[in-house]
Amino acid sequence: MAGYKKYNNDGPSAEDKALDLFAEMMIERIETISKDWSKPWITEGSLGWPKNLSGREYNGMNALMLLLHCEKNGYKIPRFCTFDCVQRLNKPTEKQAKEGVELPRVAVNRGEKSFPVMLTTFTCIHKETKEKIKYDDYKRLSDEEKKMYNVYPKMQVFRVFNVSQTNLQEARPELWNKLANGDAVKLDESEKMSFEPMDVMIRDNRWICPIKPMHQDKAYFSITKNEIVVPEKAQFKDGESYYGTLWHEMTHSTGIEGQLDRIKPTAFGSDEYAREELVAELGSALVAQRYGMSKALKEESCAYLKSWLEQLKESPQFIKTTLLDVKKATSLVTQNVDKIAEELEKGKKEEQDNKQGMKVEQPASGEKIFYSSVAYLQSTDDTSRLDEFRDKGDYEGLLQAAKEYYDGNGINEQYTFASPLQNKGDDLLIEDKDFAVVYNNSVGGTYEVMLKYSEQEIRDHITRYGTRLASDDIKEVAKDMVAEQFQAITKQRIPVFEMPSGDILYAGYNRETDTLDVGTVVNAGLVPNHQFPYDHDNSLESNLQSVHSELSHMEQYQEEEVEYSGGMHR
């Protein structure tokens, strides 16, 4: 491209080459927009979010570039795969191999060129033992355990092809049709005009700062007041314009100190101010695209078009740092929107199920069920057999195959929960009386095999092993157990400590703080003077004895010694 300054002539790395391409694409896009300000950042509003073949979503820099890549080349299905992924499609399952089934071969079409995506990988090494663990395992550790590891990020470039660059449509028409029908965003005009999760966010003040729609003509984020002000929805020509403006200002608001710490004190019109406007523009465009809307350039941002072009032509690194900020900001926005959307969807489903008499059945005894993870399979594992059952919709077969991963061990107390759905994107595919299988397509296509336990089994486990490594859900059961035990003994008597000093102290269990509270009793109840953390690895009697021992060593409860002229007497 004319006027574009190349760099690193000694031999650009794969990352440098990718950034060169990304910068060229952004320059081309901005130059197109500068000729027509009403043109949206991403034209194909009906195009779904870019994903790999297994359903994992791309984000930030990769998502934007793949969307522009799809638009430029006319790709209608935003699914991408590496050359190795294409080859894996040709690997038969064990059953197919035994039966001699020959699969139609999938291949990249002759002459097709790949496109770069940039992914950050992490190496996690224990500071003392130097043992390496997977990043997904590291994320599951507690905050204290994480402190024992050094985490080294590394940017890597992978080359991908759009499915339209392969013969997938001819070789595997069923899979092709599934991808074609599953990736389009379908929103009618009424949904675009009223996007309920955003309306609820504003109504219930659930963003990181207040959002105030007011009947006036300006939309802005005030750093000093930490609030967003926008015109009322009725003042906009359509819902897309209203929500697009909101997302622009919300992206700005993520940058303040205490959130993403991106915004520094800068003068209006400076390079830093211009870059922040680009972050907000691209952030709002990506969020809009995610929810099936288009986003045109905000009129106030037009003044920065020239500045953006100059910085992109001078240094492609500019687009990397900018889009990394966009990624962080859009993640914060979409996580909050998605959480509200999931709550609304869950509420609607429960309401519908109740109307139809389809409440989820509990065991005959009415006892609560817990789910314990016995296998966690991710992109680095061979999940092709499970993928095959899922693709065919054969969930019974998938469940039987998943059970084979159970090694017969007991409760995994650290990963035992009251619900099988613990992460955003989790989907309960199938369960029977003993097992459940959870799939998540947003973290690389993971499967989690879970064994089901009754609450009584959880209680028995707590009695035997305590809660030292237990999840919060198990610890809640442990608290219930102590509260029940305490209630039972207080029907006969309240635990009383007679101190050496002659003081009489009463004990009670505080479930909210998970402590044994000790103090005096008045008409209103126990007035605690001391709180002792409850040790669930020991019995109630042992906890009471331990508290009594600690109290006895406190100076204020020692036996008083009185001095008389004739000597020391008690």
TrEMBL record:
<feature type="domain" description="N-terminal">
    <location>
        <begin position="21"/>
        <end position="161"/>
    </location>
</feature>
<dbReference type="Pfam" id="PF18818">
    <property type="entry name" value="MPTase-PolyVal"/>
</dbReference>
<dbReference type="GO" id="GO:0016779">
    <property type="term" value="F:nucleotidyltransferase activity"/>
</dbReference>
<dbReference type="InterPro" id="IPR013610">
    <property type="entry name" value="ArdC_N"/>
</dbReference>
<dbReference type="InterPro" id="IPR041459">
    <property type="entry name" value="MPTase-PolyVal"/>
</dbReference>
<protein>
    <submittedName>
        <fullName>DNA primase</fullName>
        <ecNumber>2.7.7.-</ecNumber>
    </submittedName>
</protein>
<dbReference type="GO" id="GO:0003697">
    <property type="term" value="F:single-stranded DNA binding"/>
</dbReference>
<feature type="domain" description="Polyvalent protein metallopeptidase">
    <location>
        <begin position="215"/>
        <end position="319"/>
    </location>
</feature>
<keyword id="KW-0808">Transferase</keyword>
<dbReference type="Pfam" id="PF08401">
    <property type="entry name" value="ArdcN"/>
</dbReference>
<keyword id="KW-0548">Nucleotidyltransferase</keyword>
